[in-house]
Amino acid sequence: MWEKSITKKLENLGIPLHMLDRSSIGLRAHTKPIIQLFEQRSIPDEGWNDDQITQLLYVLSHLDSDKDPQSIRIGEREGRISTQLLSNQIGGFCHGVGRSGELAAPQPKAAGASLMQNLSNKVSFSLLKSLGLSNIKSSLVVPMGTGMSLGLALRGALAHFQINSTKKNMVLMTQIDHNSPIKGIKYIGAEIITIPGHFGKNYYASEGVYTDMAEIESIFQKNSDSVCAIITNCAFFAPRVPDNIKEISKFAKKNELIHIINNAYGVQSSDILKIIRGAIDAGKVDAIIQSTDKCFLTPVGGAIIASPNSELIQTISKSYAGRASAAPAMHLLTSLLSMGKNGYLSKMKQQKENLFILQSELKNLAENLGEKLIDCGNKVSCALTLSKFSQDQISKLGGFLYNLRVTGPRIIDLNKSEFGSCTNKTEIPFSYVVMNAAIGVEKKHILLAIQMLKKAFIQIQDK
Ligand SMILES: *Cc1c(COP(=O)(O)O)cnc(C)c1O
């Protein structure tokens, strides 16, 4: 951010003007990406270094009123903090973002934070579009996880479509055995009717847990007076497959239902994004929710709500209560600028390779154990059957893996609890263990996890 006028001011210090002009080129190259971001408002191709990101955040946060050395701050909320440490932890955005009536409204005391939030929205929007969601029109970074964001999106959609939610307070939800989306929907006072999952051959893979379109229609018909929405899922642990969202999208359009897709960690797979794009084109998709930490390698705390309807995004923004923390938007902007589009694409490529390694290693292990990998085509995780193991052995597996310092595998012991399978034990004839090759995982952790899994199998067989 070096201008010619500055060079002129320095000319009488003994350094020739041409030398200063020539030297400022290097400095300007460093700040050029910042200027380009202001102009293009989209994800840069190449990632930035930490100095560049720090400089951007410094410039933006110093537009906030609490940084003005002459400002007379007499309100009850003035971005006051007890220690500089807090300011450092929040990138200087002590005032937060939004106004009481709208999450994305410009905050007069925090022009810089508002700009930062806006850039975070635009940069993530451009990345989502370029990765495959080319038909979304708008997106919003929200300071809440996936479950709460589902509730917020539904609340906004009810307001947008002017649906009387006391009369119509039922929501169809395809079976996702995860408490957070269920709680997020219940939080806004809606009631859930679960569309049960089944196991077997389906529209997506030769076997896996899926939901059935005819069953969705018949459950809807029984409750059509009170149902306002359907929540579908595109990303869940193997052997769950994505819902048939193209058909559900047509069904939602025909029956004028709100349709929200829980795409918690689906951004890493171009195949999943393609399915969503197809669903948007085929019928009615109102909002798509993705977790910022699972998709974009930020600390936990944020989500992106995307939509093919920009007015709906505005209503969702207006449904948020109060001022919000700037941290999730800042974390996302920081992460995306550091990776750039090319950095993200290369992580997606690595994810695919890692999934392939995980699949082939687990396949070998399965053969040795007389087990099998469930052939569900999941784009992130693998499920290995545990049909030859006793319930006692299965119950020990998790503990052994934990003690071997492996975090993340999930053991679904259907005799103990069906929760997690997205179906029940009359459908699925074996227990299983799930391992993930999610974006950001290191290849060596995949290989080590397999080693430890082998070790744990030996340990449980020994006992
Ligand atoms: C992780 C996850 C959630 C929960 O996300 P939170 O951010 O903890 O609310 C919900 N649904 C699915 C499918 C998930 O994978």
From TrEMBL:
**InterPro entries listed in its UniProt record:** PyrdxlP-dep_Trfase, PyrdxlP-dep_Trfase_major, Sec-tRNA_Se_transferase, SepSecS/SepCysS
Q: What pathway or pathways are given for this protein in its record?
A: Aminoacyl-tRNA biosynthesis; selenocysteinyl-tRNA(Sec) biosynthesis; selenocysteinyl-tRNA(Sec) from L-seryl-tRNA(Sec) (archaeal/eukaryal route): step 2/2
Q: Which GO terms describe its molecular function?
A: O-phosphoseryl-tRNA(Sec) selenium transferase activity
Stored SUPFAM superfamilies: PLP-dependent transferases (SSF53383)
Cofactor(s) essential for the protein? pyridoxal 5'-phosphate
Top EC group: transferase
Q: One matching Pfam family, short form?
A: SepSecS
E.C. designation(s): 2.9.1.2
Q: Which UniProt keywords apply?
A: Protein biosynthesis, Pyridoxal phosphate, RNA-binding, Selenium, Transferase, tRNA-binding
Describe the family membership recorded for this protein in Swiss-Prot or TrEMBL. Belongs to the SepSecS family.
Function in brief: Converts O-phosphoseryl-tRNA(Sec) to selenocysteinyl-tRNA(Sec) required for selenoprotein biosynthesis.
This protein's name:
O-phosphoseryl-tRNA(Sec) selenium transferase
